[in-house]
């Protein structure tokens, strides 16, 4: 865990995604076929990265034709601006809800087949740091 992001030590990093409707995926595929890939893809993969000072949310895109990934954007949330970071376990998934002090809500899903509860561990680290 000695990796650095903007000179910050990474405490925990997890891969997640959002639940996107099938109709949005189909529409995006059609637009890419007609526009020859100009429209890009739907951002559905996210990496949540916790550091001692911030929570970073990196949106990962994949090219329409090659599957290569790239970071579309990174949101930076100061830990003091996180009102809640709730994790609910259901089956082999962790459902994550992040609420900021200005009431912005982010919902993410993490596959938890290995039952290692990394999102829950991130939640504990956030609570310990308050």
Describe the structure.
The protein has 130 residues and is of the alpha+beta class. Helices cover 18% and strands 45% of the residues. It is built from 2 helices and 9 strands. Strands 3-4-5-6 form a 4-stranded antiparallel sheet, with helices on one face. A 3-stranded antiparallel sheet has the order 7-8-9, with helices on one face.
In the sheet with the most strands, the strands line up as 3-4-5-6
Nearest-integer average pLDDT: 81
Report on the biggest sheet: 4 strands, antiparallel
> Strand content of the residues, in percent?
over 45%
Give the tally of β-strands. Answer: 9
Span between N and C termini? 21 Å
Class inferred from helices and paired strands: alpha+beta
Share of helix, binned: 10-25%
What is the global morphology? globular
SSE ordering: EEEHEEEEEEH
Radius of gyration: 16 Å
Low-confidence stretches: 22-39
Number of helices: 2
Short description:
With 130 residues, this protein is an alpha+beta fold.
Pick out its properties.
four-stranded antiparallel beta sheet, 18% helix, three-stranded antiparallel beta sheet, 9 strands, 130 residues, 45% strand
List the SSEs and their pairings.
Blueprint: E1 4-5, E2 8-9, E3 12-17, H1 22-34, E4 45-50, E5 54-62, E6 69-78, E7 82-90, E8 93-100, E9 105-111, H2 118-128
Antiparallel strand pairs: 1-2, 3-4, 4-5, 5-6, 7-8, 8-9
């Amino acid at each position: 865990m000695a990796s650095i992001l903007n000179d910050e030590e990474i405490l925990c990093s997890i891969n997640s995604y959002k639940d996107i409707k099938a109709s949005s995926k189909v529409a995006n595929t059609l637009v890419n076929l007609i526009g020859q890939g100009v429209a890009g893809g739907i951002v559905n993969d996210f990496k949540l990265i916790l550091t001692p000072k911030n929570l970073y949310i990196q949106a990962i895109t994949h090219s329409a034709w090659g599957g290569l990934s790239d970071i579309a954007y990174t949101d930076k949330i100061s830990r003091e601006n996180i009102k809640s970071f709730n994790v609910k376990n259901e089956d082999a998934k962790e459902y994550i809800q992040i609420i900021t002090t200005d009431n912005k809500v982010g919902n993410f899903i993490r596959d938890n087949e290995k039952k290692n509860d990394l999102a829950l561990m991130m939640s504990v680290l956030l609570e310990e740091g308050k």
